[in-house]
Amino acid sequence: MGIKIPVVELFGNTIQGEGALVGTPAVFVRVFGCNLNCRGFGMPKGELSNEADEIIASPEFAAAKELKDLPLAKTGCDSYPAIHPACMRFCKMYTPDELADEILKASNFKPRLVVFTGGEPLLRQKDLAEVISVLYNTYHFHDFMFETNGTLGWNQHWLTENAPHDFNLWFSISPKLSTSGNPRTLAINRDAVHSLLETSPDKTYLKFVADENTPVDEIVNTVAHFQFGTVYTIPVYLMPEGGVLDERSRKNAQYVADLCWKLGYRFSPREHLTVYGNAWAK
Questions:
Q1: Residue 71 buriedness (CB in 10 A; 0-12 / 13-18 / 19+)
Q2: Most-buried pick from 71, 166, 184, 222 (CB within 10 A)?
Q3: Could you tell me which of 51, 28, 29 has the C-alpha nearest to residue 38?
Q4: DSSP letter at 252?
Q5: Who contacts 238 (Cβ-Cβ below 8 Å, separation ≥6)?
Q6: Is the predicted pLDDT of residue 1 greater than 60, yes or no?
Q7: pLDDT at 108
Q8: Is the CB of residue 180 less than 8 Å from the CB of residue 41?
Q9: Could you give the strand order of the β-sheet that contains 266-267, starting from the edge strand earlier in sequence?
Q10: How far does CA 81 lie from the centroid of its chain?
């Protein structure tokens, strides 16, 4: 039957709202599976969220027929449908050719930025490299991005034989700090980040989600850990935490902007929230 790629969400008619390509028309592909479990987000220091498990055990989850029927999580991983095994029933399974066709349809048959997110999409990099090859060679797409936690490197051989290297391959790396609930030994991988930088030295950057509870010294130390002398200087973005636009998020955005000024990092908005709100794909 060949390989099948589990996809939680696939949608176009949107923009990339974060990081270096903010405002770019894009198609998003949320791939199922992750090698981390970020249960610490939104929780008091040292505590872990059980919200996803509570949602999974609820009558609302049992009755849900589509992803859009699921409640959003306010704590822990906000993309829990991409990591919780019980949510596999909401996935659609595609061969690389089928997924490329679906991306083409979602793009309105025009080459767009294709963003692979998750979960952790680099777990499926060999299969997704085949999708990239089809989109490049058959449909003339040139721009691809992986939103990754930075724990997995990129095997450049996946694309060497299938597509020339005159397309743009971006890596948006969001390292998970102690506030995620993951141990640093698991969440921070210098060799993996170095691999991504070697693959796309001018299209790879770090992006940290931050609020007043985020340990600034940990961000600074992690950034220093990922600097590789004079060979690569990796850009750093800070993005305000929060999926709801309210007074708290406005104040937090100002706090993060001030922190960027202090540290010399770049500010990333969350423009998809401003335009579309926080919701699963319809």
A1: middle
A2: 222
A3: 51
A4: H
A5: 207, 208, 210, 219, 256, 259, 260, 263, 265, 266, 267, 268
A6: no
A7: 96
A8: yes
A9: 92-94, 5-15, 25-31, 113-117, 143-148, 168-173, 204-210, 236-240, 266-267
A10: 14
Q: Average of pLDDT values for 230-257?
A: 81
List the one residue out of 177, 166, 174 whose CA is nearest residue 141: 166
Residue 163 reports pLDDT greater than 60: no
Q: For the segment 205-243, what is each residue's pLDDT rounded down to a tens digit? A: 999 998 888 899 999 999 999 987 766 689 999 998 766
High-pLDDT (> 70) share of the chain, %? 94
pTM metric for this prediction: 0.94
Whether the per-residue pLDDT at 181 is higher than 70: the answer is yes
CA–CA dist 177, 174 (Å, integer): 9
205, 145, 10, 96 alpha-carbon torsion, rounded to 10°: -140
* Domain over 5-208 is classified CATH 1.25.40: no
Residue ranges of domains in the chain:
5-208
pLDDT value at 244 more than 70: no
Angle at 174 between CA 200 and CA 257, to 5 degrees: 105
Q: How far is CA 261 from CA 91, 154, 237, in A?
A: 41, 32, 11
User: Which residue in 228, 185, 158 sits closest to 36, CA to CA?
Assistant: 185
- In one-letter notation, the amino acid at residue 63 is A
